[in-house]
Write a structure and sequence with these properties.
- The protein has one domain.
- Helix 2 runs antiparallel to helix 3 and helix 2 crosses helix 4.
- Helix content is 69%, strand content 0%.
- The longest helix has 28 residues.
- It is built from four helices and no strands.
Length: 146
């Protein structure tokens, strides 16, 4: 028990020293904000929000515990990716993300996409040719909450 505590304390101190060194040297390295990197990171965070909304819609439609658990894990992974991108955004000294992260920001678009997917699945079982689903083009999704 004592060895574990000592190891954790040493590891924590090592990390704190490393972060202090990075902070001290990074202050000059990141003096200028890279607008391209900031824009790319914000795009990635927005894509993560869209995935969260889509997964949220699928969770409400799941009919089995294993699939619902899988979706919950997928949403957790999406949130971790968003969290990492937010940390990188902060490290690049970019302006803050303009709104709180939400699972419902793109829910209407996600519901329309899922409805189109279900209609396409029904059409596929009746032998009709596959239909295009413009509702599922996530680049065209607009937020319900500005």
């Amino acid at each position: 028990m004592g060895n574990t505590r000592a190891f954790c304390t040493r590891t924590t101190l090592t990390l704190l020293v490393a972060l202090t060194v990075v902070s001290a040297t990074g202050a000059t390295a990141w003096a200028q904000v890279d607008a391209t990197a900031c824009s790319a990171l914000k795009t990635q965070i927005e894509r993560g929000e869209k995935s969260l909304s889509y997964d949220d819609v699928l969770v409400t439609m799941e009919d089995s515990a294993p699939r619902a658990t899988f979706r919950a894990i997928q949403m957790s992974n999406d949130l971790e990716i968003i969290r990492a991108n937010l940390a990188i955004l902060d490290a690049h000294r970019c302006p803050a993300y303009p709104h709180p992260i939400s699972t419902i920001r793109y829910n209407l678009a996600a519901i329309l996409c899922r409805t189109a997917e279900l209609k396409a699945a029904i059409a596929n079982t009746t032998g009709q040719p596959p239909v295009a689903m413009p509702e599922c083009n996530r680049d065209a999704w607009t937020p319900m909450i500005p």
